[in-house]
Each structure stands twice: as C-alpha cells, then as structure tokens.
Design brief:
The chain has 15 helices and 17 strands. The protein is α/β, with parallel strands linked by helices. The strands form 4 sheets. The protein has a 6-stranded mixed beta sheet, with helices on both faces. Helix 7 (214-259) packs antiparallel against helix 8 and helix 14 (464-473) packs parallel to helix 15 (485-491). The longest helix is centred in the middle third of the chain and has 46 residues, at 214-259. The chain is globular and about 110 Å long.
Length: 508
C-alpha cells in the first residue's frame, strides 16, 4: 500500500503551489491515472514518490509519503541511455544476472518479447519507440517491483503496442499510477482519476480524486458543473431582482426623510424606524449573497483558432509525391511510396514503430517548406530539432517582424501561459507548452499547410478535445503522423499505412 498524507508541493522559481494538502491511498488492484494541464506538476508528483532527489532542484514539499515496504518500479518520461547495445543495457542492471532463464522468459512473455531480445547486439538508439518502452519495462520487472509508476508510457508507441499496453496495465498484478495523454488508454484502464488543476491564472491549486472510470468522471464532472452553474446563475438573477426592489424602497425612504417637514416629528421618527428596518434587510441580503452557490471554477479554457485566410481550395495540389525507396542511414524501410494530398485534406500516416513514418514526414516537410505557393509549417516529434530552448516563448514568437510583444503575450495568455512562464527559457517549460508554441507560431504566420508529427502527444486529456476541434475546423491541409486514436478518427479524412511495401490508403 502507498499512503500520501497532506502533501504540498511548491515551485522554487515563482513560489507557485502545484499541489496542496494532497492525501491519497493506493491499494492492490488500483490503476490510477494522473491528469491535468501541461505544467501542473503531474510528472513532479511521480518523481517525488519515486525519488525526491529528482525534484530537489526545482520544487520543495511538505507532508509524508509512506511506502509500507513497497518496491517501486519507475518508467521515466524521457529515456536517456549512453551505452550501445540492448545486451549492454541489461548488463548494467543489478538484477539481470540474478534471474533464472525461466524468470527472464516469463518477463519476455509478459511483454511480448523474444527471450533472445535481452541478449541482442542491436543498438538501443535504433529501437522503435515501442521497443524502447518495452526495453525499460523489462528492466523494471527484473527488479520485482510491487508498485509501478509510469510517466507517459503511451508516448512514441504504435497502435498495436498501445493495445498491448492497455492489456499490460489491466492484467499485471501490481498497483499502477500512470500519466498519459491518450484518452482511449485512460478510458480502457484507469479505475481512479487524480485530476490536478491550477485555477485563477495558476494561483490556486485544486485536486480531485475520483474512484471511477474516466468516461464516468468526465460525464459526472461536466454534469455537476452544469447543475452548479445553473443554480448559481438562478440565485444571482433572483438576488439582482430583490436588490433592485430594495434600492428602490431605500431611495424612496431617503427622499421622504430629506423632504419631510421639521414640524412633523412623529413622521420623522416613523421614517427613521423604517430606514433602520431597511438597513437590517440590506445586511441580511449581504449575508445571503455570501452564501450563494458559487459559479464553478475551472482552468481557463484554451482559446485559439486559425484565421479564415488560412485556407486552400480543394483542387489545390499540395502533395503529389513519389519515392522509390526510403532509408534511415543504411537501413531499408520502404519502397514505391506515393501520396496525393489536395486542398483541405487532413492526412494521417500510421504504421508500426520503426516503419519510417517520421523519416518520411521529414522528407515531405523539406519539400513543402520550400514551396512559394503555399505557407507550410512543421512540428517535429522532437521539439528540440527546431526549438532554441535557451530563448523565451516571447522571443520565439517575435523572431519575425510580423508579431510584436503585445500580440505574442495575448496569444500565449490564450494558451494558459502565465506571465512568468512567458519569460522562462523554453527549456524549463513542459512538452505540452512547447507544442503550443508551434501551434501559435503556425497561427501567427497564417500557415495553410500543417505538417505535424504526433501533434497531440503532449496535450492533456482536457486540452486534446479542443485541439482536435481546432484542427478539424482548419481550412488548410494537414499532413500528420499520429497514434492518437481519437485524433485519427475525429480529424483525419485520409489515413495511410506505411510498411516495407509503401503507403497504403486504408481510409478515405
């Protein structure tokens, strides 16, 4: 059992409280997901549970975490390995050589790996996203943990591996706390929702713990907010009507007091008594106002949209693409690749990890970014490929004369950036906030062709529906790579699958 009591986490840079008086108990069969907007402290909470030294340089905390003899397995969001081969990776783990062949075989079976995988001389750097996730999970299971902490395990894995991950979380006989932006994964696995929020421009922390599936939580949350808002607005309307009548009566009595003759002391005393009763009524109304149902507070909504000018005629040829063969370094990936994209097509390229989707998208981006007849922009999977992380978000958005500082601040504010975050180096902001920078840049530059590699991978389950709606309404062309099942179903009207034999149009 994991027990957390009265945990408060405060950011050292701006003294912003990320989490306040958090209490939580994780039991044997619990599969708890942490959700919330970018930068709200989800990964920080996992790191603190696992190893407080991981967060000492940027937050401080109070409260207690009790493990009750738990051995924690932790999957970090970022994977860094300086070694070379798969076998060398496992050789560096203290438990690898302590396990019997049967124990290794059982771990391999649970993860859908060949037992020979542990002894492979394949370079870790050449593994696909899904293979890297399984590589790490296997190493974690070798330590025989009693509790799993998984930070974005669904990042960078293909659709088949996503289904496998769902089955793994559901079937493993361990309690799990995980973070994910994949709504389908959350819906299919979590039985506890931990929702971390930052209200009033990130000045007021709030958390909710709900022991129910995500779909139910989302439905009940919205329904509860709607009921509370209806009641609050009804009470305010009734109060305003009563206040209007009260002010009319008070004004009338004040007028009578000001105009009554001094020769009528009896009338004056009656008016004074009447005003005393009116003032008492006013105090009761003030108390009534204090006790009124509050309008529900939620995190400020993401608000952005592309300009109407960012459109293409449906007959406009955006991509008429043929490629005899696709390689990464000297490794063959695919052949006879062809693709056609017109006007406002919204295209998604799917396929297994390692099929070459990102490599192909980079080639397409390189060609389209040079075209003078369209305005294309590219969001890479690895943001650091195009982001100078030493500059601030303001500097990133104002690097061209088309955007001034005031405009940049307005747009960043619409995407939940605080004034402090606008001035922080990009290296210090979350992955979701970096993704927002790319989208804002595309809007400010009035782009009509968006080339997006895993565009929703770092947005929260709360933000993603808004992002999908904006992209669905975009009047230009979208060429994307994604494993987000909701993005594919709701945004894309052309779906290609990439394998060694080329691109196959599987939905149109």
């Amino acid at each position: 059992m994991l027990l957390i009591k009265n945990l408060t986490i405060t950011h050292k840079d701006d003294y912003r409280v990320l989490l306040q008086d958090f209490c939580f108990t994780l039991n044997l069969n619990d599969k708890a997901v942490i959700i919330g907007e970018e930068g709200n402290g989800k990964s920080t909470l996992l790191k603190l549970i696992y190893d407080r030294s991981l967060i000492d340089d940027y937050v401080e905390f109070s409260g207690n975490i009790y493990f009750d003899g738990q051995k924690i397995g932790y999957l970090a969001q970022e994977f860094h390995y300086s070694g070379n081969t798969v076998f060398e990776y496992y050789s560096d783990l203290p438990d690898f050589f302590e396990l019997s062949p049967k124990e290794l075989k059982d771990i391999a079976f649970e993860l859908g790996l060949s037992p020979d995988f542990f002894y492979s001389d394949q370079a870790v750097s050449t593994l696909s996203g899904g293979e890297k996730t399984k590589l790490q999970l296997a190493g974690i299971l070798m330590s025989k943990p009693t509790l799993l902490l998984l930070d974005e395990p669904s990042n960078d894995i293909d659709l088949d591996t996503l289904v496998w991950l769902e089955n793994f979380i559901n079937s493993c006989n361990l309690p799990v706390i995980f973070i994910s932006h994949d709504e389908v994964l959350i819906e299919n696995t979590a039985n506890i929702i931990i929702h971390i929020e930052q209200l009033r421009h990130k000045m007021l922390p709030r958390h909710t713990i709900a022991k129910m599936p995500y779909s139910q939580y989302r439905h009940e949350r919205l329904a509860s907010f709607a009921r509370q808002e209806r009641l609050a607005r009804k009470e305010r309307s009734e109060y305003e009507n009563k206040m209007e009548k009260f002010l009319q009566i008070k004004s009338k009595v004040e007028h009578q007091q000001n105009t009554i003759s001094r020769s009528d002391p009896q009338g004056g005393r009656l008016l004074k008594k009447k005003m005393k009763s009116i003032l008492a009524l006013g105090r009761r109304m003030e108390k009534e106002q204090e006790d009124m149902t509050q309008i529900p507070e939620t995190e400020d909504a993401v608000f952005f949209d592309f300009d109407d000018d960012a459109n293409l005629h449906k007959s406009k040829v955006v991509v008429d693409f043929c490629l005899d063969s696709l390689y990464v370094n000297d490794r063959f990936l695919s052949k006879n690749i062809s693709m056609n994209v017109n006007g406002s097509d919204k295209v998604c390229i799917t396929g297994k990890n390692g099929a070459g989707k990102t490599t192909l998208l980079k080639i397409i981006a390189d060609r389209l970014l040079k075209r003078p007849d369209i305005k294309a922009s590219y969001m890479p999977q690895n943001y650091q490929d195009l982001l100078n992380t030493d500059i601030t978000p303001i500097e990133f958005l104002t690097d061209s004369k088309s955007t001034d500082v005031t405009k940049a601040r307005t747009f960043l504010g619409s995407m939940r950036y605080t004034a402090d975050e606008m001035e922080h180096p990009i290296a210090k902001i979350s992955g979701g906030q970096k993704a927002k920078l790319f989208l804002l840049k595309m809007i400010l530059e009035n782009c009509n062709v968006l080339i997006l590699d895993e565009p929703t991978r770092n947005f929260s389950p709360i933000t993603n529906p808004i992002i999908r709606e904006v992209l669905q309404n975009f009047q230009g062309a979208i060429i994307s790579v994604s494993h987000d099942r909701k993005f594919i179903n709701e945004v894309c009207n052309k779906i290609y699958k990439l394998d060694e034999n080329g691109l196959t149009l599987i939905s149109h």
